[in-house]
Amino acid sequence: MPKAFMTRGLSIAALAAAVVLASCSTKTETASVAPPAPPPPPPVTLNQSVAEAAAVYVAFLRQAQTIQPGGFPDAESIQAEIRKGASYEPLELSRGLIAYGSVIALQSPEFVAGVRQFAVDPTQRQQMVARIVADPAYAATLPGADAAAGLIASTINKDAVAMRAIADAVEQDAYTVQGRTDPRRRWAITPIPHREVRLESAKTLSAVDMLPSPEESARLFAAANTGTGLQVEPSRKAPPYTPAMVRSLAIAALAALGAAGDEAKANTDALVSEPNSEFCLNMSKLMLFQCLAASRPSYEDMFCLGRHVARDLSSCATQAVFAPIITVGDPTETGTPVATPVAASAASVRTPAPAGG
Predict the structure, then answer these.
(1) Which end of the chain has fewer CB atoms < 10 Å from its terminal CB, N or C?
(2) Please, what is the end-to-end C-alpha distance for the chain in angstroms?
(3) DSSP state, 70?
(4) Do 346 and 308 form a contact (C-beta atoms < 8 A)?
(5) 25-29, 136-140, 159-163 — which is least confidently predicted?
């Protein structure tokens, strides 16, 4: 065989072998390349609107907790405390309570972690978000919900207990001030001048929009989005949960899924509205007006302050996180309760016994 032909044949064979090897190498390299990792889930996100609503509640509560627990020095000091306690709009305060509950829930690492495990897969995350929006009660079934509910209940109850103590002291002082040996008795039993003016003042204050404090809003916004910053005591609360508690948990769950930012404001705005809580605070305010309309001497105004500001605020907050709504009589066609424990206890205005001769 000619030498040149053999050389050319070997060259072709070598080239073919090289092509085969290169092909194998390419397949091996292609097979060893891992698929791209899925994108990380979005961070915990709660919008500013919820933080501002919570700030309204917290700011008013702190103001209400400065009401003198008794021992009023003069008639004007009572009127000043009534003005302080009447300066809330019921619907805004109710929304603020639920918003505050959601911020508290986000302080639970167990709840946040339990919810965020469903945020890793984008499809599953969207399904979870849709399910919570459609049925807020679903959030109460998620891992760690009892830990978050416990934080909400213990924190709200702590403030409610403080308001109840103020109510006890103020109502008792309405009796004490009538004592013959009490130096305040002279002005306490004197009819209040311009009674209609002080009633209209309370009504006007009740209708004024409650503006959030920028500092308080910023503090709560940071606490919600970082999971730290609030002084809370670990606790657990098992279901069933009240409607207000359910909504707080739902907002917090959406935030943990990264689905409660500015783009989801319509969802969070809807979730902070809860008719039972709103009804309780509305009835409390109506009972305050009725009490002031019937009151004549200052000691009766003291009773109105203790019963329909301090005590009712405590009762409505406690009812929002602990007790189911109790209806009295038949519900309305829309299903809204016609009375609550606050309304039932205040159905007829009861003031302290009149001063003796």
Answers:
(1) C
(2) 145
(3) S
(4) yes
(5) 25-29
Contact (CB, 8 A) for 353 and 175: yes
Q: Quick check: helix, strand or coil at residue 328? A: coil
d(CA 213, CA 211): 7
Q: What is the pLDDT of residue 347?
A: 42
In DSSP notation, 132-181 reads HHH-GGGGGGSTTHHHHHHHHHHHHHHHHHHHHHHHHHHHHHHHHTTSTT
Within 177-311, residue ranges assigned H as helices are: 185-188, 195-207, 214-226, 243-256, 265-271, 275-294, 298-305
Q: What gap in Å lies between CA 300 and CA 150, rounded to an integer?
A: 38
Radius of gyration of the chain (CA): 32
Say what percent of the chain tops pLDDT 70. 81
Q: Which token pair is 33?
A: 């390349």
Instruction: List C-alpha distances in Å: 56 to 26, 140, 250.
Output: 65, 25, 20
CA–CA separation, 308 and 255 (whole Å): 35
| Residue 158 in tokens | 């702590």
CB 272 within 8 A of CB 98: yes
Instruction: Provide the Cα torsion 78, 79, 82, 87; round to 10°.
Output: -150
Contact 225, 44 (CB under 8 A): yes
Give the total residue count for the chain: 357
Kindly give, in sequence order, each residue whose CB lies less than 8 Å from that of residue 6, ignoring residues fewer than 6 positions away.
none
- Indicate whether this model's pTM tops 0.85: no
